[in-house]
Amino acid sequence: MTQLDVTYHLAAPPREASALALNSLREVYGIRRVDLNERDRTIHIEYDATRLTDSILRQLLRRAGLDLAEPPREIVPDELPAAEQPAA
């Protein structure tokens, strides 16, 4: 068993129906703990990574009616400026 903790940011505060749907999320085999912080718009989940993946968790949260904020994409420059390129 591999225990992982993950925190998702919500794009909008959860509605009452979504908060109630989170109770059923606690019943999913492999999820150990679910903590919703409405003030910070985050949801923290402890889960067994041998049974669940990040994409499954995101799908479960969306089905519960939560609007997840996507993480910002990391910007990778195509080329380093000449001053930062390694010497050949």
Chart the SSEs and their pairings.
Elements: E1 3-9, H1 16-25, E2 31-37, E3 42-48, H2 54-63
Antiparallel strand pairs: 1-3, 2-3
Write a concise keyword list for the protein shown above.
2 helices; Alpha-Beta Plaits; three-stranded antiparallel beta sheet; alpha+beta; 88 residues
Task: Walk me through what this model shows.
The protein has helices at residues 16-25, 54-63, and strands at residues 3-9, 31-37, 42-48. The N and C termini lie far apart (46 Å). The longest helix is centred in the first third of the chain and has 10 residues, at 16-25. Mean pLDDT is 82; it is low at 72-76. It contains two helices and three strands. 23% of the residues lie in helices and 24% in strands. It has 88 residues and is an alpha+beta fold. β2 (31-37) and β3 (42-48) form a beta hairpin. Strands 1-3-2 form a three-stranded antiparallel β-sheet, with helices on one face. The chain has a domain at 3-63: Alpha-Beta Plaits.
